Amino acid sequence: MIALIFDMDGVIIDSNPVHREAWEAYNRRFGVETTDEMHERMYGKRNDQIVRDYLGDHLSDEEVLKHGAAKESLFREMIASRVDEFLVPGLRGFLYRHRDLRKAVASNAEAENIGFVLKAADLARHFSVVLDGHQVSNPKPAPDVFLRAAELLGARPQDCVVFEDSYSGVQAGVAAGMQVVGVRTTHDKLPGASLEVDDFLAPELEEWLRDLMGAK
């Protein structure tokens, strides 16, 4: 039996537009104008990496944590009343159809954001395992968070399907020895993915999963 592992931003919730808005507003407090290139560097990264990239390597670990927490608080404030609006199309139905499969969230996102989104969207009940990037030594593109998720699900890596929207996430899934479904919310192409779909309404996704489960 396969197990399903989901990234959060760009897979469960198409939140990157709000993250961009939040980073622009937050960086502006410190005289930093956020460019398109900076946004591109954000995708799939852990917050400590983003803060040091945007605001400087000179920051102490404590300062990095404070900046990250403040920016994510701003993000949650911006999206609080609109969580359902940003859920990736077809997600609820997909989770219900596959309610008998083991499922995890494994994301580089902050723990507070993951908990907030899952609670606000009433999705927590679908996932027996929830991991953030700070619970492993190395963030994506290292495979650590996906391998830990598989371990906690009691699944072999080769029996896991990862859903990802970022280059680093796809790289992490491939490095973990898992099948990867690329969700095209952030990028038009996701090299290395076994399948690419626009969202969870894509009919080819169900066909692909049926073939995969039949081969196990």
Written as H for each helix and E for each strand, in order along the chain, the element string is EHHHHHHEHEHEHEEH
- Counted up, domains total 2
CATH topology of the largest domain: Rossmann fold
Q: How many β-strands, per DSSP?
A: 6
Structural summary, described in words:
- The chain has 216 residues and is α/β, with parallel strands linked by helices.
- The protein has 2 domains: 3-15 and 84-215, Rossmann fold (3-Layer(aba) Sandwich); 16-81, DNA polymerase, domain 1 (Orthogonal Bundle), CATH 1.10.150.
- The chain has 10 helices and 6 strands; from the N terminus they run βααααααβαβαβαββα.
- A 6-stranded parallel β-sheet has the order 3-2-1-4-5-6, sandwiched between helices.
- Helix 1 packs across helix 4.
- The longest helix has 19 residues, at 61-79.
- The protein is globular, with a radius of gyration of 17 Å.
- The termini are close together.
- 43% of the residues are buried.
- The mean pLDDT is 95.
